[in-house]
Design brief:
This protein is mainly alpha-helical. It has one domain. It contains twelve helices and no strands. Helix 3 packs antiparallel against helix 5, helix 3 crosses helix 11 and helix 5 crosses helix 12. The longest helix has 30 residues.
């Protein structure tokens, strides 16, 4: 498919505008990352062991915080889209620009991915500063980390567009948060690895494999913490890429139907 020059210019301008917004809010995002990392790691790495929890739990939560911040940042982005459609409806104005609507929705997904990437990656160095005595990065596979991290954020970007395509207003978005988002996160492996779940409850472990968030947790942990406790990182990156493609198709199609109905 050949995209006209005018459409490419409009797409690049809109995306660059979002990049500038991210850069303008970089200080606030750094504070958010610091608060998230500090709270989660201090409690789980230094307080919970006092109650008998393994000291390896801290690093597990550290990487889990990276995924969690990316996940929830994309959900907040979806909420912004829903709010805009219900109020100012800037997206309808963007549909008058010389670019196909599907490309506009792809831009939305890429913007959501950019927001989640910038915020979540800050947890990597911040968390390491808090855990450097208990984390060995000599076996880390940074290539695999980059692959999983990119696939995760692309998936989350299109996932955000998909949610915004059918969550009609703030009230319904609240339902989505409680009924879809929270279960995906809790059962995705924020507080446990998939192998531990599978060994204890095999059927629950098999069902959990349907959860795309699981592959983000497993893939990033496997690439940084190494060991054989996690699903192979490249498999996770591949599965996340498949989910990203699926939600790209669903999200763009449903969002187009929603905008056309306004």
């Amino acid at each position: 498919m050949i995209i006209p020059r005018e459409a490419r210019i409009a797409f690049a301008w809109l995306l660059w505008r979002d990049v500038r917004r991210v850069m303008d809010s970089l200080g606030d995002k750094m504070i958010d990352a610091l608060v998230w990392s500090f709270n989660n790691i201090i409690i789980n790495a230094y307080v919970m062991p006092l109650f008998g929890v393994s000291k390896s739990y801290g690093p597990l939560i550290w990487i889990g915080t990276i995924v969690s911040m990316a996940f929830f940042e994309s959900i907040y982005f979806a909420n912004d889209i829903v709010t805009d459609i219900a109020t100012d409806n800037v997206v309808e104005y963007h549909c008058t620009l010389p670019l196909p609507s599907w490309l506009l929705f792809v831009k939305m997904a890429l913007s959501a991915a950019l927001h989640s990437m910038v915020l979540s990656i800050m947890n990597l160095p911040l968390g390491y500063v808090l855990l450097y005595k208990s984390v060995d990065l000599s076996q880390a596979n940074w290539g695999a980390f980059a692959g999983v991290f990119l696939a995760m954020n692309l998936f989350l970007g299109f996932f955000a567009v998909w949610i915004a395509s059918w969550a009609r207003d703030g009230l319904r978005f609240g339902y989505v948060y409680r009924r879809v988002v929270n279960p995906l996160w809790l059962f995705g492996g924020y507080q446990f690895s998939w192998y531990i779940l599978y060994q204890a409850y095999p059927r629950a472990g098999l069902v959990a494999l349907l959860n795309p968030i699981l592959y983000a947790f497993e893939g990033l942990r496997g690439s940084v913490l190494a060991g054989d406790m996690y699903i192979n990182s490249w498999i996770c990156a591949a599965v996340l890429s498949i989910y990203a493609a699926l939600f790209a198709v669903w999200g763009v199609r449903w969002m187009k139907q929603r905008i056309d109905a306004i």
